[in-house]
Amino acid sequence: MNAMGWEHLTEPDLRGRTLVMTGASDGLGREAALRLAHWGARLILPVRSRSKGEAVVSRLRRETGREDAAQLTRLDLADLGSVREGAEEITRAVGDSGIDCLLHVAGMVTRRREETADGFERMLAVNALGPLLLTELLRPSVHGRIVLVTSDAHRFGRIDASDPHFRRGGWSLRAVYGRSKLTAMLWGLDLAERLRGTGTELQLVHPGWVLTNLQNATGSARLDSLVTDVTRPFAMTAEQGAAPVLFAATQPLPHGSYIGPDGRGALRGRPTFLPRSKAALDLDHAREVTDWALAEVGLR
Ligand SMILES: NC(=O)c1ccc[n+]([C@@H]2O[C@H](COP(=O)([O-])OP(=O)(O)OC[C@H]3O[C@@H](n4cnc5c(N)ncnc54)[C@H](OP(=O)(O)O)[C@@H]3O)[C@@H](O)[C@H]2O)c1
User: For residue 10, is it within any domain?
Assistant: First the structure.
């Protein structure tokens, strides 16, 4: 029995439901996908690594005994062209059923400043701008819920409209990761307002402190494994970290909630409602940031 995991959730019946989830090739997304498939969902999994994705799909089909448990599509969130093609492929894969739940779990960190082919700071592209474009393109097909995995790291994010991609300096992993997650929180706040009354819900999620690949950011495999060993007693496993995502995707919740672990500092624990930072609740700023982001991805 895993006290911080999904076992205490009311088990949903997801038979006949179509879920689209990014980030299922690794980490807590893979654990969430396994559980959702066990609960009967049909999963469309957009991934950037075909081989990692195929391993997950084989496991889901084997463990559930269902061929329709999972299907891969291609998606690189760091590339706007790939997101556009990916949205079309997802729409074809989903077919007439539409999307009951769209889950954005994919995310990443880099050790130094990198730019995507579109000229974006890479973390901002993958953690915020790519998911925003994908959501806008898929919105006509979504008729249930949108779940956006952000992070409590949004608390140390600052938006600088004059230099959103850190071209003039000031780059640090903490500053950019924080900005990318605050951008996602603000875009999520704006989207929740736009979705009000449409029947589609939006939920935001902070998974907690979870031991996954995301922690492997030192650039040295030995140091990464040392950090993992030292932090193991304090952080959650990927299975435990999947619980807030499963909670946000399947439980009855007020529209626009922010979900995460109930322990000290929201680092670990059972899923509950979390407060968000004051900056992440500023609706006027959320509209400005969303307008900027929509223009960046070519939708304005
Ligand atoms: N772990 C934590 O403590 C923690 C805390 C707060 C928030 N989060 C958030 O939780 C989410 C899941 O992270 P995790 O901890 O499970 O990390 P992870 O193990 O590194 O998994 C990240 C997932 O995102 C995918 N991804 C990365 N870049 C992508 C791209 N350009 N296009 C498409 N997919 C891409 C990865 O695909 P590949 O397999 O191809 O790499 C992988 O499936 C992220 O949004 C992260 O920011 C995590």
Answer: no
Average pLDDT in the chain: 95
pLDDT for 12 equals 96
Distance 182 CA to ligand 1 centre (A): 16
Q: What is the reported pTM?
A: 0.96
* DSSP letter assigned to residue 129: I
CA-153 nearest atom, ligand 1: 6
Taking only the tens place, the pLDDT of each residue in 240-264 is 999 999 999 999 999 999 999 999 9
Q: Please indicate, yes or no, if residue 109 is contained in any of the structural domains.
A: yes
Range of the domain at 190: 18-296
Residue 68 sits in a domain of what CATH number? 3.40.50.720
279: three-class secondary structure by DSSP:
helix
Tally of domains in the chain: 1
The strand pairing partners of 47, in sequence order, are: 74
Whether 4 is in a domain gets the answer: no
Q: Are 126 and 104 in contact (CB under 8 A)?
A: no
Q: Is residue 136 part of a domain?
A: yes
Q: What's the gap in Å between 25 CA and the centre of ligand 1?
A: 9
Instruction: Evaluate: CB of 176 within 6 angstroms of ligand 1.
Output: no
Nearest CA to ligand 1 atom 13: 107
Residue type, 146: I
Tens digits of residue pLDDT in 129-151? 999 999 999 999 999 999 999 99
